[in-house]
Every structure is written in structure tokens, then in C-alpha cells.
Write a structure and sequence with these properties.
5 helices, mainly alpha, single chain, 130 residues
Length: 130
């Protein structure tokens, strides 16, 4: 029981230190001048808010210090296309690296069976065709 009380006391004290440090950092002029200190991303906006920048501004003015600028990305189709293209490249690269690893392992096992040093397997390359 004494050990549990000691652990709980230490956790409480560390949380106090963490809270003080976090408040100091968030109110530090060096940090608060950065864009990341005052930027938030809100994903699922209700349609009533998404249609009006003024409504969004009024909603988020409740934050301390208010809101300087509201930017709403209403058309994400170009981003979706880029993400799909990136995922395709990632899948292709993963397949190439897997086949390279398999070929290396086979060459290593074959060389070990013969008692010779393994041959270097050619690394795969991938280029975007334009």
C-alpha cells in the first residue's frame, strides 16, 4: 500500500511539472510567434459551417486570442488523386523491395549450400514514366 501511494504521489508531482512546463512553452513569445502554435485543423465540419467563412470565424473566435484567418479547403479532388498516385508508387516500391529481399535470400542460401560467397543481386530501380 505504501508503494502504491508513493507511485501515485510521484505521478502527481510529475504531472504538475509537465503542466507548468507546457504552459510556459505555450505562452513563450518565441513559440507563440510560430504559425504552428496558432494553427488547427478541423476535419468534419458540419455543412452549416462549411458554407460560410463568417460562421467559422464566429465559431472559432471563442479561442483565447481569437482567430486571425480561416482557410477552408472545399475541393480535395486534386489531393485525393495525388494520394492515390503515391499509394500506387508505395505499393510498387514495396513489391520491388520484397522481390529484392527474396532474391538476396535465395542467393545467400544457394551460396551457403555450395560454400561460396553469395553473388550480388542487382538492386531494383523504379522510375516514373512521363
Amino acid at each position: 500500500m505504501v508503494f502504491v501511494a508513493w507511485v501515485m504521489r510521484n505521478i502527481f508531482l510529475e504531472l504538475q511539472v509537465y503542466t507548468r512546463l507546457r504552459i510556459w512553452w505555450l505562452t513563450n513569445p518565441h513559440h507563440s510567434a510560430k504559425v504552428g502554435a496558432s494553427t488547427i485543423m478541423v476535419s468534419p465540419l458540419p455543412q452549416a459551417l462549411a458554407d460560410s467563412d463568417e460562421r467559422i470565424q464566429a465559431t472559432f473566435d471563442l479561442f483565447p486570442g481569437g482567430v486571425r484567418q480561416v482557410v477552408v479547403n472545399r475541393d480535395c479532388s486534386a489531393l485525393a488523386e495525388l494520394i492515390e498516385k503515391r499509394d500506387g508508387y508505395a505499393a510498387k516500391l514495396e513489391g520491388l523491395l520484397t522481390s529484392y529481399a527474396v532474391a538476396n535470400e535465395k542467393a545467400r542460401q544457394k551460396a551457403a549450400a555450395k560454400g561460396t560467397p553469395p553473388k550480388e543481386v542487382k538492386r531494383p530501380t523504379m522510375r516514373e514514366s512521363k
